[in-house]
Amino acid sequence: xxxxxxxxxxxxxxxxxxxxxxxxxxxxxxxxxxxxxxxxxxxxxxxxxxxxxxxxxxxxxxxxxxxxxxxxxxxxxxxxxxxxxxxxxxxxxxxxxxxxxxxxxxxxxxxxxxxxxxxxxxxxxxxxxxxxxxxxxxxxxxxxxxxxxxxxxxxxxxxxxxxxxxxxxxxxxxxxxxxxxxxxxxxxxxxxxxxxxxxxxxxxxxxxxxxxxxxxxxxxxxxxxxxxxxxxxxxxxxxxxxxxxxxxxxxxxxxxxxxxxxxxxxxxxxxxxxxxxxxxxxxxxxxxxxxxxxxxxxxxxxxxxxxxxxxxxxxxxxxxxxxxxxxxxxxxxxxxxxxxxxxxxxxxxxxxxxxxxx
Length: 358
Fold this sequence. Notes:
Elements: H1 3-11, H2 20-69, E1 89-90, E2 95-96, E3 102-108, H3 112-115, E4 126-130, E5 135-141, H4 148-151, E6 171-173, E7 176-178, E8 180-182, H5 195-201, E9 207-215, E10 223-232, E11 243-249, H6 252-261, E12 265-266, E13 274-276, E14 281-282, E15 287-288, H7 292-299, E16 303-312, E17 318-321, E18 328-333, E19 338-343, E20 353-357
Parallel strand pairs: 8-10
Antiparallel strand pairs: 1-3, 2-3, 3-5, 4-5, 6-7, 9-10, 11-20, 12-20, 13-15, 14-19, 16-17, 16-18, 18-19
């Protein structure tokens, strides 16, 4: 046999397998692709779960916002029977931001890796994850604004300061401009006038400017002769639910200043959960999310001023008003179960107290 034929024979010999190195290379490539696929699937599932939760949260936020926008910023205390999924549970309690322009929704029983996929943006202003508690807290503006400029216009339930601004020498008290003459001795026209007096006489407690006025029977300008006197802002004991009640009875303007001294605001009917019944109602004719027994447990048997205003005709037919430039403010008698308009200077009958809320 020639060398040429032998060479051709070896060249045509068939191959019967792959080397170990080649097989390991193939397995490595398959492994990398598998790990990448599993990882990609995991990320996609986390995003899917996060999107589902954000979708449910947006529906819940819309419901909460609708109630807040029609109730002067007052939020519902609880949202019940809201659909939960295996991805997380929506807690029924609704939180409120410190500046009262926003609210929070909390999702519990949440995978921490899913929480990291809940992104801020659109209506969601903030996302706070707590891996240890397995919770996420989402923050929204009450008007569901997507930016701070619009969000600051959310209703807060607080009465606005006097607009237009008061004239020089006047004080803005609960939305009412008044010229307050300090009484002799410990006189004042506003709370800050009592700072020095309080150091000497307050005993470490808060002090306020206690204001009295006289009824003029003038429908367009019901009160005059405003005078102010410094007093210690002593609260009652045994009050709960975030409320503060004054130990002394006082005029409506004094009640506004008393609450300011405690860095709080005079309560509104909406703060108490009373959202229906008009300027005067009693028992079950006063409607809302409250019960008289619950208010009495928290606030006690007290007759208290509110920020709500009323106008009344000569027959004492009264309607609620949106500003405090009226002769009457609405007071709530917790314990006797009714609300009623009364003159803002009234300190002689059914003594009225300041009822304050954060």
